[in-house]
Amino acid sequence: MTPEPAAQADSLRAALRVAEGPITLLGYDAASRPLAPTSKAKAQKALARTGKALADQQEMLYAGGASGDPRRVLLVLQGTDTSGKDGVVSHVVGQVGPAGVRITSFKKPTAEEAAHHFLWRIRRALPPAGMIGVFNRSHYEDVLVCRVHQSIDDAAWAERIADINAFERQLVESGTVLIKCFLHISYGEQRKRLLARLDDRTKVWKFNPADLDERAYWSDYQSAYAAAIAATSTESAPWYIVPSDTKWYRNWAVSQLLCDALLGMKLSYPKADFDIDAARARLQPPF
Known about the structure:
The chain has about 290 residues and is α/β, with parallel strands linked by helices. The chain has a single domain (about 5-280), classed as Rossmann fold, CATH 3.40.50.300. Helices cover about 50% and strands about 10% of the residues. It is built from 12 helices and 5 strands. The protein has a 5-stranded parallel beta sheet, sandwiched between helices. α1 (about 5-15) crosses α11 (about 245-265) and α2 packs parallel to α11. The longest helix is centred in the first third of the chain and has 27 residues, at about 40-65. The chain is globular and about 75 Å long. The protein starts with 5 loop residues before the first helix and ends in a 5-residue tail after the last helix.
């Protein structure tokens, strides 16, 4: 089952994929909706169709992994606070059976994690064969915060970027399909979402006053994201900048990118390695 025509999936990838060379996020409109359905209702119906396709594809991926197929999928979600990473996990990835998904949310490194190379904890969280892994924040945290707050120099930052490119190249060569999505929201939209948390007693717990301190570095973070994305968007592991001011568009777009990646793997159920007729005969009466 294909959720959208193949030509549209190709066009969406082209529309959201980061071009080579330096970029500025000012050149990307967070409120735009490239190739979107014509209404929220239509987008939600399309998302439901995609959900069925995602579940079908994931089951084949899981079956293949159980039979020795080394392939796996890793969805990397990056974005500023309130950009919708949790929303994508809930509305897109949540349509897939939980047994075949591994979700990891990376927080500030623990003392043990900080004592190792920054990719140590990332490697430990990689999904096994046959699984869809989701990084809700990721190894990119280690080239963002440190750049904004200048806790490492340019040479150390460049070394980490090189490590990330080598790491991702190794992942792809070993059978990992990598989908990297930057959920791009505007300064004004973040303000609205932070205020909404304060106005909703069921979401106040999500509000962290320290986030307001980080918001003061908005321009620095935009520059840091742009530099990291430009330096790590490669042919085998490209970045997609997903306009995310509109939540339903964000969910629709990420679901299309994820489903298209799975369909591109040409998955199928493994063939039985035993005599099916003999097994069926053993199940016939008399008992």
